[in-house]
Amino acid sequence: MTIFCKAMLVFALVKILFIWNTSLTLVSYYEFATPGSLIGKIIFLPSVLANDHLNLIYIAFMAVLIILVILPWNYISGILFFWIIFNLYRLNIPVMNGSDNVQLVLAGCMVFMTVRPYIKHSILSDLQATSFNAAVILAQLIVVCIYFISGWDKLVTESWRTGEAIAMIAQREQQVGVWGSAIVENALVNGMLSWTTIIFELAFAILIWFRRFRFPLLIMGVMFHLIIAFTLTLYDFSFVMIASYFIFLTDEDYTKMIRNLSVFA
């Protein structure tokens, strides 16, 4: 789970870099009011300070995230990360999208994805292990539900079954990717990409729970999201979903991956 947490940290770092200029524009149009309660002031402190010092707040966010990437993951790391993501979300609500929603809910789960420091008391250690396992399962279910709901919605939507939805998405984007124009103009490619999306999303929700299908499915998912990213320029959603894949891999899976890679070294 440590690799999953680190991947989400790196994604947050990149996200800040790309949203920085947009955030500067947003804070010039509105001011975040200071909450009346002490708890509210603590929770929203970065958002309040960002009214006049957004650059300093973002520099501080990036510094903390870099430190969290380097240090072992623990409860403090999880709380700090969720605090940063929550305030980023609050500061940029007008331009938030699906990737930010995914990042926020997964950051909430990550608070409990730690066994450090290990609690020796028997009851408390059991509670720690239970909360860890519950957080991991919840994060996995969130990712699975995203795919299933998205896939089912596309399946029952005529424009997705005909491929017209792909063309409409590409046309709606201000800047399509390298192959964007080909997608808009080619009905056959639209249909193939549409049904590939539907089948993959529905299959992922079922097959990801079976070990024999997990690696091939995750590899297909990486390729799928890279294609989506570079054809429709949906970079942030594609990359947060790729980062979320690490939640499905166990320590045994990572050991097996390293062993297989060492064969080619």
From TrEMBL:
Write down what this protein is called: HTTM domain-containing protein
Cellular localization per UniProt: Endomembrane system
Domain HTTM-like span(s) in chain numbering: 9-253
Q: Which InterPro entries does this entry report, sorted A to Z?
A: HTTM-like, HTTM_dom
Primary location: membrane
Q: Name one Pfam family in it.
A: HTTM
Kindly state which keywords UniProt assigns to this record, in alphabetical order. Membrane, Transmembrane, Transmembrane helix
Q: How does it sit in the membrane?
A: Multi-pass membrane protein
